[in-house]
């Protein structure tokens, strides 16, 4: 969706100045606030929990552009959509960075992190290529609804990852309990 944000905003009647004031003004502070608040929120929610919450927030924010296509010219509406998208981008970046760091092997963390972030950016760069054509074919509202719906495969993958992490934790807890049991029997 982000590849088409500027053309969309200009096409629905906002000026470059209006968009720049909102995106570079309030939008910048929203990303910054999201990054700052994303960390503490992540500590409360856990890494996977925060990926869920921030991911849903991002999906709703993307759907906000579909709403923006339906409302009349309003700087307030534009600000709400841009600020919410940027806030959840900041939060999501904090959670995703923590997640990537948590799944890398300490011995190879720099290489693995670089590969994972490169893979992440591949989708942003390659899959955005037909976005202009899609927006033209579908219309702005349907295009942004489709973009919001395209988050579903990511959530399905996150559910699978969450199950795997839960199984791994249960196995680790069982192993730790067995070690404690063996150690306590040695003391007797």
Describe this protein with a few key phrases.
8 helices; Growth Hormone, Chain: A; elongated; 0% strand; 188 residues
Description:
The chain is an all-alpha fold. The chain has eight helices and no strands. The chain has helices spanning 5-11, 16-45, 47-70, 75-103, 109-126, 131-138, 140-149, 152-187. Helix 2 (16-45) crosses helix 4 (75-103) and helix 6 (131-138) packs across helix 7 (140-149). The longest helix has 36 residues, at 152-187. The termini are far apart. The model has no long low-confidence stretch (mean pLDDT 89).
Distance between the termini: 64 Å
**Structure summary, number of beta strands:** 0
Rg computed from alpha carbons, rounded to a whole number of angstroms: 21 Å
- The succession of helices and strands, N to C, reads HHHHHHHH
Task: Name the CATH homologous superfamily of the largest domain.
Answer: MFS general substrate transporter like domains
Query: How would a textbook summarize the main sheet?
Result: none
Question: Judging by the overall fold, what is the CATH architecture of the largest domain?
Answer: Up-down Bundle
Percentage of residues in helical conformation: over 70%
Count of individual domains: 2
Which shape, going by the Cα principal axes? elongated
Arithmetic mean of pLDDT? 89
Low-pLDDT stretches are none
Helical stretch count? 8
Proportion of residues in extended strands: under 5%
Structural class given helices, strands, pairing?
mainly alpha
């Amino acid at each position: 969706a982000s590849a088409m944000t500027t053309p969309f905003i200009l096409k629905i009647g906002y000026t470059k100045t209006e968009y720049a004031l909102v995106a570079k003004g309030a939008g910048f502070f929203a990303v910054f606030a999201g990054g700052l608040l994303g960390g503490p929120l992540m500590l409360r929610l856990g890494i996977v929990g925060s990926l869920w919450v921030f991911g849903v927030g991002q999906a709703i924010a993307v759907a906000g552009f579909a709403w923006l296509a339906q409302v009349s010219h309003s700087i307030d509406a534009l600000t709400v959509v841009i600020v919410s998208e940027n806030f959840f981008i900041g939060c999501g970046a904090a959670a995703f960075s923590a997640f990537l760091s948590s799944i890398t092997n300490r011995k190879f963390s720099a290489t693995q992190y670089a590969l994972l972030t490169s893979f992440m950016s591949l989708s942003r760069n390659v899959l955005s290529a037909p976005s202009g054509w899609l927006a033209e074919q579908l219309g702005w509202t349907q295009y942004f609804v489709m973009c919001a719906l395209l988050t579903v495969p990511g959530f399905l993958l996150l559910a699978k990852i969450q199950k795997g992490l839960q199984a791994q934790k249960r196995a680790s807890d069982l192993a730790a309990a067995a070690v404690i049991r063996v150690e306590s029997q040695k003391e007797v």
